[in-house]
Amino acid sequence: MTLEPLARPARLRPGARVAVVAPSGPVPAERLERGLDLLRGWDLDPVVAPHVLERHPDLDHLAGTDEHRARDLQAAWCDPSVDAVLCARGGYGAHRMVDLLDWSAMRAAGPKVFVGYSDITVLHEAFALRAGFSTLHGPMVATEVFLKDTDTQEALRSTLFEPESVRTLGSDAAVALVPGTARGITYGGCASLIAADAGTPRARTSARGGLLVIEDTGEAPYRLDGILTRLLRIGALDSIAGVVCGSWEACGPADGVRAVLADRLGGLGVPVVDELGFGHGPTTLTVPLGVPAVLDAPADGGRCTLTFQVPALV
């Protein structure tokens, strides 16, 4: 399957109503309130879904039951008064509730802004494959990086309100592991979640012409080796156009991680860039998924960039 551009949602305007949902782990109330205050400072009108602050009665790692988490997301998406759906945090749990969503109803409701990363990767893939909608791999409302890092905040704010102003993603720390230039449609997210999703019903079976966007946290180099090896063995990386890597927070020594990336991805024959400033690191830049982009990885040590050929939002 050759990747095609996905339907992009409308940009936000002052006063836009945004729903905050918790598809995965439990949400600290104090951090949520601070995040809501930041959104209000952007002249947004945030509303918290009914079950966001719940805890699963038996499983402490989940924010409420699977049914409640799915109900909140679907209700927010299908509510015509809601302009965007923002995730409160990641963690674990999206795999458990993704098949409880009525994707026909959500597809009929049309595209709208959806933001999250980490465990939310499962939902990014579902929106792409089941609804045909572009989404934003970006910071979540009740996470420390969103609350503390001004670069993270500004990258998301600009993407939401002035998407044409953030067409190029770059980082001084970025390195070309395999030089070259590639064009394709962005897709991906957290590497371990992509591997966990592979082989399940409705999962992506190929991504011809895609620019794979990956990052992760807490995965030692040997575990990253296993994750990438699984994707290679099942053919999930066949015919992709390039690989764009973000941060590898708490994944071990940078040289060990980079050695694994070069070993497992270098044989694909496509450009590979590492450390482009998104993911679980101290700064989480916003990356549109499902849009055409150009990856530039200069061989001479020049600045590596990912340039989106259209604004993230219309």
TrEMBL record:
Catalytic site: S118, E215, H280
Family: Belongs to the peptidase S66 family.
CDD domains on file: Peptidase_S66
Domain LD-carboxypeptidase C-terminal: 183-294
UniProt record, GO biological process: proteolysis
Keywords (A to Z) from UniProt: Carboxypeptidase, Hydrolase, Protease, Serine protease
Protein name: LD-carboxypeptidase
Organism: Streptomyces sp. NBC_01401
